[in-house]
Prior knowledge:
Layout (H helix, E strand, L loop, with lengths): L1 E4 L8 H15 L8 H9 L3 E6 L2 E11 L4 E9 L8 H16 L4 E6 L2 H10 L2 E3 L8 H5 L7 H6 L8 E5 L14 H16 L1
Parallel strand pairs: 4-5
Antiparallel strand pairs: 1-2, 2-3, 3-4, 5-7, 6-7
Helix pairs in contact: 3-4
Amino acid sequence: MEIEISSCEHLMYVSEIQQEMYDSAQRRGTGIAKRSIEYLTKKISDGNAVVATENGEWVGFCYIETWSHGQFVANSGLIVSPNYRNRGVATLIKNRVFQLSREKYPNAKVFGLTTGLAVMKINSDLGYKPVIYSELTQDEEFWSGCKNCVNYEILMKKERKNCLCTAMLFVPENNNKVNGTVIQQSEIDEYNGEKESRLSV
C-alpha cells in the first residue's frame, strides 16, 4: 500500500472518493456529507491531500484546509474504502496528513470536529486535546460548511458553543514533543508484511 501526498495523478479517484464520502455520511446519519468534485479536485491537484492506493485501487483519502489566514488547519474528509476498513488504514492516513499539515503550516493550530470514537483516539495519540468550540477558528466560512450536516440546527440553537461533534485541538507550542508517535514509512511497510502473512495463513 502506498500513502502519498496528492497530485494530478490521483484525480482518477475523485469521483469514487466523493461518492464514498456521501455514502458514509448517509450511513452514519451524521457528519458533513457534501464535497463537490471541483473542491476535491483542487485539493488533490494542489497537493493538499493524502491518497492511499494499492495495486492501482483507491484505498483512502484525507485533505487539509486552512482557516483564519493560516492560523488554524483542519484535517478533513477522512475516508477509507469499504474494502480496506478495519485494517488500521485510517490511522496511517491520519498520521500522514497530520505530518503534511505540520510541514506546510508549522505554527498553525490543528483542529478537528468529529463524532467518531476511532478518530478521537487517533487525534489523541497525535497530541490533540478536547476543547470547547470557542478555542477553534471563528472563521465564518468554516462554520458555514456545517450547513450540510444534519445537526446544523442543533449547532445554531446552541449559538455555535457546542454540538454533537467533539472539538479537538493540537497546539504546536504545547507539543514540542508529540504525545503520540507519528507513523513512519517503515511502519507502513511492517503493516503490509503482517497483512500478507495473515492472508497466506
